[in-house]
């Protein structure tokens, strides 16, 4: 189990130790040795050479040399806050998750982020935003690791290194920082057209939010909820900001990037400090858990597709309030470790192949980012439920475990206190029947349509929003050097909408290509509330 704020030897650890070190009557070394001077190296005479025997100099510099840890491989730049989640109690018919029961208050930690930029990049770049929530429930940690855009670039996690290598700065000059306006990004998304839907959202105002406080959040994948009676329901999670959805315009975003690169993190921290606590409602779209896992012809395992809210309304099931800023950026915001596999009873995963890869990736990356396998003991990552695992030793092990038998079954440490089984109330995976299948490396036919939902999105926009999308494609593609990449992207746009394609082509000074096949018949939606954000805000 993880340590508390007092170590097994009785010494204060973590935040308490920091307070002692910076607020105590005198300074000490890390070993507790009292120091009268930390301003001068030990020298042979005031002007003489510095002596190697200066243990305090060596300790101070050595520790400083190792202050940095690797930034996240994606979502490196972020800001976070503490808060509370209160369940409305109206989801019991679909899930037994205790934190969703009526009026149950669960502490949370939420980290917002950009995806592509490095830790020191600007906040208001055109990019997807991460929206990751850690619920410290009484049944263990539940992480909802989502984004502010409801779809993703790829349908299979094996393509994640490809899309990120294409989106990150060019490997030769490491530019541009945190912008998608470059050849490799547009090269990839025009060759791998399942990225088209996410890309058009990125070219919309959604990718330049006014504030973290005015962003929606989406779990994206379909999850499987389990009720107390064992009944299962497929769901998509949504966060709806009480402050409404608001964006910057591109000129504002660019100016702010220069004038205040910390605009979003400052806005979040200032609002919380002023007592204007940001709030979101958690909502679910629910779908019957059928054998084919589709709804109204939409494959629920395809993370490049939404289910329009006209077809499946979002039901609000709880309220999130962010009410406290972190006291130490490194300890909390930098060291927090989210993982889509942190689940609680009542919430299970589906076979979305993107989600499957994520279930491997987060724990794997955190072992190197946080220096070994014991990062669940870092205070921000500690569950608020009792921990009784048999994980032992390893780098950065802070716990002093007692007993001799961290294995089951045993007859030494009081024997085995449990037998595996659902009757003890633990987490049991839903016994989903698997179809007879053949081992293949291929996507289902239902993943093949990459065009109709981008077209649905375009048709749902207001004229001014369409102007913004057109301008964004023109600006971003205008930064590409390779003419063939611009032309290939125009062909992708031709398959979305001829007007969009013609306007961007005109802006780029290129001829507009014809669509490769008849455009999908999609009805313009007068109120596609997935995009419009209609929501029962009180
Ligand atoms: C980090 C969301 C797909 C690998 C993150 C973060 C978010 C996020 C919000 C930042 C968490 C934080 O604030 O600390 C998503 C969403 C996805 C997606 C919504 C698709 C629906 C993937 C895939 C992979 C992946 C497919 C790999 C196969 C990672 C890694 C990190 C990360 C390695 C860094 C984690 C860390 O260092 O703690 N992702 N991601 N993500 N994601 Fe994803």
From TrEMBL:
Catalytic activity: 2 H2O2 = O2 + 2 H2O
Residues noted as binding heme in the record, renumbered to the chain: 72, 111, 160, 358, 362, 369
GO cellular component terms listed in the entry, alphabetical order: cytosol
Main EC class the enzyme belongs to: oxidoreductase
Keyword Cytoplasm on entry: no
Source superkingdom: Bacteria
Crosslink (3'-histidyl-3-tyrosine (His-Tyr)) position: 339-362
Catalytic-site annotation from UniProt: 75, 147
Record field: compositional bias (Polar residues): 2-17
Keywords, comma-separated and alphabetical: Heme, Hydrogen peroxide, Iron, Metal-binding, Oxidoreductase, Peroxidase
Boundaries of every Catalase core domain copy: 28-416
Function according to Swiss-Prot or TrEMBL: Decomposes hydrogen peroxide into water and oxygen; serves to protect cells from the toxic effects of hydrogen peroxide.
Name of the featured protein: Catalase
Lineage start: Bacteria, Bacillati, Actinomycetota, Actinomycetes, Kitasatosporales
Span of the entire protein shown here: 45 to 582 of 752
